[in-house]
């Protein structure tokens, strides 16, 4: 089983739609969770950290479910510029060194 | 204002010909990381430096080496590139190595092996 698993997609949605991605992780001791965005042939960029209480940043909402070991990302009112690959990232370490384990990403395509 | 800079952006080398990739940062971060990302795959950590302390991932091949001569620079040396080493190589930095620290990525170097 992969440490971090995501549906690769692509998710094809029209502008203005709401779309949600899920991600599961295998290590129950994982402490930190992130969503990164990666545009084609570019570097990953931090979209948001994911906190136990859930957090929202504009149109983006992230949720963490520790009991079921999954993380979600909700994007409301999708824009064309949201088209990218969204990487679920987990740090399985609970202390010391921060090792990020990336999922393979979920590709989102937003169309006019 | 680039914070993590990688050079070159594109590198072509021949099978077995050593190659060095460069990363520099203006953030004065303590930790520098090297990731390998193959097409349609997740970035995979190769190793990292915490200051001058080198930490190799257990499954990183011996073919990959790294140097960090000072805080700002870190190099990835591939001693004998194989066709399977063709990938995007990403450098990242973080201030500390705390579990919640943000890693900042450079734009990557895309390596082609002929």
Task: Describe the overall structure.
The complex is a heterodimer of chains A (112) and B (114). Chain A is mainly β. Chain A has strands spanning 4-6, 11-14, 19-25, 32-38, 44-50, 55-57, 60-65, 70-75, 84-91, 101-102, 106-111. In chain A, strands 2, 4, 5, 9, 10 and 11 form a 6-stranded mixed sheet that branches. A 5-stranded antiparallel sheet of chain A has the order 1-3-8-7-6, with no helix packed on it. The termini of chain A are far apart. Chain B contains no helices and 11 strands. The mean pLDDT of chain B is 93. Helix content of chain B is 0%, strand content 51%. Chain B has 114 residues and is mainly β. Classes of the chains: A mainly beta (112), B mainly beta (114). The interface between A and B is medium-sized, with 26 and 26 residues.
Helix share bin of chain B: under 10%
Oligomer status: heterodimer
Secondary-structure element order of chain B, N to C? EEEEEEEEEEE
Largest interface: which pair? A-B, 26 and 26 residues
- How big is the Rg of chain B? 13 Å
Report mean pLDDT of chain B, rounded to a whole number. 93
Q: What structural category characterises the helix and strand content of chain B?
A: mainly beta
The biggest beta sheet of chain B reads: 7 strands, mixed
Which residue ranges of chain B are poorly predicted, with pLDDT under 50 across at least 5 consecutive positions? Answer: none
Number of helices of chain B: 0
- Mean pLDDT of chain A equals 91
How would a crystallographer describe the biggest sheet of chain A? Answer: 6 strands, mixed
What spatial form of chain B do the alpha-carbon principal axes imply? globular
Low-confidence stretches of chain A: none
Share of β-strand residues of chain A: over 45%
């Amino acid at each position: 089983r992969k440490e971090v698993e995501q549906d690769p997609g692509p998710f094809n949605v029209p502008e203005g739609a709401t779309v949600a991605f899920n991600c599961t992780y295998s290590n129950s001791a994982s402490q930190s969770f992130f969503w990164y965005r990666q545009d084609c042939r570019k570097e990953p960029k931090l979209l948001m950290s994911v906190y136990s209480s859930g957090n929202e940043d504009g149109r983006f909402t992230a949720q963490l479910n520790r009991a079921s070991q999954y993380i979600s990302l909700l994007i409301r009112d999708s824009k064309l510029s949201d088209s990218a690959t969204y990487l679920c990232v987990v740090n399985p370490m609970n202390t010391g060194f921060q090792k990020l384990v990336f999922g393979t990403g979920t590709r989102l395509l937003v169309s006019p | 204002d680039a914070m993590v800079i990688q050079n070159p952006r594109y590198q072509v080398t021949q099978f077995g010909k050593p190659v060095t990739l460069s990363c520099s940062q203006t953030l004065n971060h303590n930790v520098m990381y090297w990731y390998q990302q193959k097409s349609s795959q997740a970035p995979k950590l190769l190793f990292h430096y915490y200051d001058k302390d080198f930490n190799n991932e257990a499954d990183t091949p011996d073919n990959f080496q790294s140097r960090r001569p000072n805080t700002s620079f870190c190099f990835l040396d591939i001693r004998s590139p194989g066709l399977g080493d063709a990938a995007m190589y990403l450098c990242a930095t973080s201030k500390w190595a705390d579990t919640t620290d943000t890693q900042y990525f450079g734009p990557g170097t895309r390596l082609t092996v002929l």
